[in-house]
Design goal:
By secondary structure, the chain is mostly helical. The chain has helices at residues 4-26, 32-39, 43-50, 62-77, 81-97, 100-104.
Length: 120
């Protein structure tokens, strides 16, 4: 059995980062370097996200995409590190609740660290 966190880190987190990068560039007009600085990644990593070399295997629901867009806007407005972590955790929980996990990784356990037994 894989834990929820394993699946989320290996598959979903890269896809969230890719979506954040696309949103910051397409919607907010940021450069790859600016996105890299906000996401604390290298510019090369941002390029790989944009060119579907990382995080390309997941298609988020429209609701999940909207949640990621809200988080991207908040990141660009400025957040401290604690707020950034909480924001990423909220996006992760949102993706779990959207049904993606049950549909794509039905054998995973639910996330006990989030304190939300209703995630699955």
């Amino acid at each position: 059995m894989k834990t929820t966190c394993e699946v989320m880190v290996q598959r979903v987190l890269p896809a969230i980062r890719a979506e954040l990068a696309r949103c910051m560039i397409a919607v907010h007009g940021k450069s790859q370097q600016e996105v890299a600085e906000v996401l604390e990644l290298s510019r090369a990593a941002v390029s790989q996200y944009l060119n579907d070399k990382r995080g390309a295997e997941i298609d988020f629901s429209e609701d999940a995409q909207q949640e990621i867009k809200r988080f991207a806007a908040s990141l660009l407005e400025g957040m401290n590190s604690r707020e950034q972590v909480a924001g990423m955790c909220n996006v992760c929980k949102f993706v779990q609740r959207s049904g993606w996990l049950n549909k794509n990784e039905p054998d995973t356990g639910y996330c006990i660290l989030c304190g939300d037994d209703e995630v699955r």
